[in-house]
Design goal:
Helices cover about 50% and strands about 10% of the residues. With about 220 residues, the protein is of the alpha/beta class. Helix 4 links the parallel strand 4 and strand 5. Helix 7 crosses helix 9. This is Transcriptional regulator, LuxR family.
């Protein structure tokens, strides 16, 4: 279905210069597009909750406040009606395939030139998928365990998702409480709820679960 009204687009990337490039690409695709920007997952979630109804989310794979594919998975679970495009310097076929399997509508390598970025944005907003030329899907299907972890992450509340992310980085409850500006008892309650949702017995199992959602590291 072709977009007839100027779209609302949200760019979530922690690199200011690349946000500028994505904004230029969005305006090249749709001259009157409304484009908002977020430099961290928390900012993105706030804009998603308070901002306009977005027609597209351009999401950096490595964002502060998320780990690996967890940001993509969470957004697809919370906002299934909004297409999400992963933007990353990691353009290995394996990474692209995993992003698409986790629900992305497209994958734009950061090495893509501006006209092709604009074409990708236009293609996806109009209802199709877009991956870089030469991409070979191979056999990168998600394993059952990874699918189960993804389904659980997608069902977390916003606060639980943030606790899960900070916990997976090795933070203690006291550190998480300080980072989130809440009481330590509140964090403990969230951790208990997260353990129950994952069917886990300890924090170590949650960290292992988060690691299953990692993307292969490459320079961003």
């Amino acid at each position: 279905m072709l977009m007839t009204m100027p779209p609302n687009i949200l760019i979530a990337d922690d690199h200011p210069l690349f946000r500028i490039a994505l904004k230029q690409a969005a305006r090249l695709a749709f001259g009157k597009a409304t484009v908002d920007e977020a430099g961290a997952i928390d900012d993105m979630l706030r804009l998603m909750a308070q901002g306009p109804a977005y027609d597209l989310l351009l999401l950096d794979l490595h964002m502060p406040g998320a780990r690996g594919f967890s940001g993509l998975i969470y957004m697809r679970g919370q906002y299934p009606e909004i297409p999400v495009v992963v933007v990353s310097g990691n353009d290995q076929d394996k990474t692209i395939a995993k992003a698409m399997n986790h629900g992305a509508s497209g994958f734009i390598p950061k090495s893509t030139d501006l006209p092709d970025m604009a074409q990708a944005i236009k293609t996806i907003i109009n209802g199709a998928f877009w991956v870089p030329p030469g991409f070979s899907a191979g056999h990168e299907n998600l394993q059952d365990e990874e699918m189960s972890i993804a389904e659980t992450v997608a069902a977390l509340t916003p606060q639980q998702f943030r606790v899960f992310t900070l916990l997976s980085e090795g933070m203690l409850n006291k550190q998480i409480a300080y980072e989130m500006g809440v009481a330590e008892g509140t964090v403990k309650a969230h951790v208990t709820a997260i353990l129950k949702k994952f069917g886990a017995y300890n924090r170590g199992q949650l960290i292992i679960a988060a690691q299953r959602l990692e993307a292969d590291e490459m320079p961003e």
